[in-house]
Structure formats: C-alpha cells, structure tokens
Amino acid sequence: MTDVRDVIIIGSGPAGLTAAIYTARANLAPLVIEGEPSSTSDQPGGQLMLTTDVENYPGFPDGIMGPELMQNFRSQAARFGAEFLTAKVTKVDFSARPFGMWVGDEEYRSNTVIISTGAQSLMLGLPNEERLIGHGVSTCATCDGFFFREQEIAVIGGGDSAIEEATFLTRFASKVIIIHRRDELRASKIMQDRAFANDTIEFMWNSQVTAMNGETKLESITVQDTETGEERDVPLSGLFIAIGHRPNTDLFAGHLELKDNGYLVTEPDSSRTAIDGVFACGDVQDDYYRQAITAAGSGCMAAIDAERWLEETGH
Amino acid sequence: MAAGITNLNDSTFDETIGSSSEPVLVDFWAEWCGPCKMIAPILEEIAGEQDGLQIAKVNVDDSPDIARRFEVMSIPTLIVFQDGEPAKRLVGAKPKGALLEEIGEFL
To answer: For chain A, which domains are there?
Structure first.
C-alpha cells in the first residue's frame, strides 16, 4: 500500500489530462492511472489516439493529429508535476475515505478521485465478430484502412465518427459503402456534405448487418433491409464498425449511480457524484455532447471541484 | 544478442530473418497509427532487457509487399519468426506484461 494522495485521476483522455494539468498547478501532486496500451480506444490518451486529423478542437486552424494532441496534453500535465502510472484500475472501494483503487494487488489511496475513464467503441455483438477483428473487421480506420487499398469495404454507422472514418478510408479503398439503419445521417452537416460529394462513397440506407462471414478472414456480410426484412450477402474484405460508444463504467457498478445507458450520474453543472470527494468528467458522464473540448472543459471543472472540496474539508 | 531495434525493408528482410539463429519479433507499423506508437517504447524496453530475442520493425508504407506477403491486415501486428518461418502472430497494441506472456515461449 502506498501513501494517501490528495488526487488520483482514473483515465487519461482530454478530460483526465486537463484535470491533471489543473490539479498539478494547484500543487495537489495528482497521480494519473492512465490505462494500458490497446487498439480499442480504452487506452492512454483515449479515443483520439485512434483518429488522424482533429479539425474541430479550438486553437488549431490547420487541425492536429489525434495522437499528437494527446501527447501535448500529457506533456503539459507532466510539466507541472502530474505523475503517471501506465496501468488499468481493476477494482475500486469508495465506501470510506481515503478512497481505494487497485491495480491488481497494488492498492492506491486518495482523498479525492476524479473519474475520467471515457468510452470505447460499440460492437455489433454478432457471432464471428470477435474472431474476425484484425482479419477484415475493424474499429480503427487509421490502423487498418491501409490494407484495403483498391478494395471495396464498408463502414457501419451514421454519426460523425462513421463519416470521418469513411472519408478517411476513401484514400485507400476503391469503394466505401456507408451502411446505416435509417434513411438519414445524424452526422454534422459539414461532414454529411463532404460524404455526399465524395464519389468513392456509396450509401446503403435502412440497412443493418446481420452476419459477418468468412473462415480465416472476412469474405462477405449479410445485410438486412430494415423496411422489407429482405436479406442479401455483400462480398467485402473490410468492415469498419463506427456505431457509437459505450461508457467505461463497469468498474463503478455498485459503487456509483449509473444511468440506464451505463453513463455515470453527476450533479447538473458539476462533476460531483453522489459520493463526497468523488468527481467524474468527460465521456464517462456525458452522453450528450461527447466532444474532446467539452471533455477537457469538464476535466477542468472536476479539478476545481476537487481542489475546493479539499480546502473545505481541511485537507 | 539483442541490443537495439533494426529497421527492415524489402532488400534486408529475407536475409535478416533467414540468417538469424535467435527468434525475431517483427513489428509491422506506420507513422499514422496511434496504437503502433503506443507499443514502440515497450518494444524498446523489451529489446534492451531480453538477450535471446531480436526485435525488428517493418514500416508498412515503405514495405507494403512484405506486409502483404504475411497477410498483415491490421496494425500493429507482431510476428515472431523462428528459423525463418512465422511462429506466432499478435494483432493489436497490448501492455508490456501481456506481450511478454504471449512471447514467453521464445524468450
């Protein structure tokens, strides 16, 4: 067991790292338990580690690469004294203060906790899906798009992520089919316009994927028309899943209040949870805005909430 | 003896893999791949720590033919070559502990 810290931050996307910058500058010596390397958007740096150009984060008129932006966040936090542990929290105990967090058998204790564990890509949950990940099925266009040069591939989804992935993939693929279960996209207008203007992109509306087929790699998908119920097979070598995210809150079930959709509950206009001294920020508690800049903003709020709470409780 | 990490390309790949008496872990990566960058420092550490294993990198932009030959469809992909043949394949970024466990038989 280690000494009791003032602040431990779980998660290291824009929310967690902004909280780290602010709490470090407040001389609270935060420890960021940043997660473990992975290819699924549940890793140090968060979801932006799997994107290329980030064009809508303010301050970058020419855009900036996702991993570069997150490296900047991290370096800034480190500069002011934030410490990092490249590991994943496996268990928490918020029943008494100081709060306990475990990485395997190693326990860490803190007077405040800032939860910023974010969200990860939703999967379809179809048979074969897990087996075919990395063998034609992917949730990371930047990791895998390269390998589909001159091939016909598809992206499932209708939001900004799906359109961004599809547009990126047109650099490689001969055809990118966007498969969406409704007849209109929910992506931002500018993204929609770009997609409609791109000759390499085709749309399959009112469609959902009901099966992924292939032995050692993806060979085709089965698509069902949501209006008629008709099914047909579409030969494809690549399928990118971009249907949304689920919050990383499994760790907190039974400890903190979760909404029906799994998101953490915080007080309105605050990062405070129902437990005094436990704060939450970023996508883990935001099912509405879910932008890097809103996550960063909420990370700052969590840091200020934590700092003031520590003062008020005489720490 | 593993010291640093070698970069391999179309002209050096077969020679290096074929002539190595030790297992060679080949990291298929690219500049624009976030998870590839994540595991790069981990591989540097392992290269420094493990004597009986060589680590090499293949940039898929520079050497697409090698990537295609070994059916690399997703990066990062790590392939351990033993006696010139692929012996184990790992797809996706992983933490150091998990990586060492997976390649344990080759250390």
So the answer is: 4-120+245-312 (3.50.50.60), 123-241 (3.50.50.60)
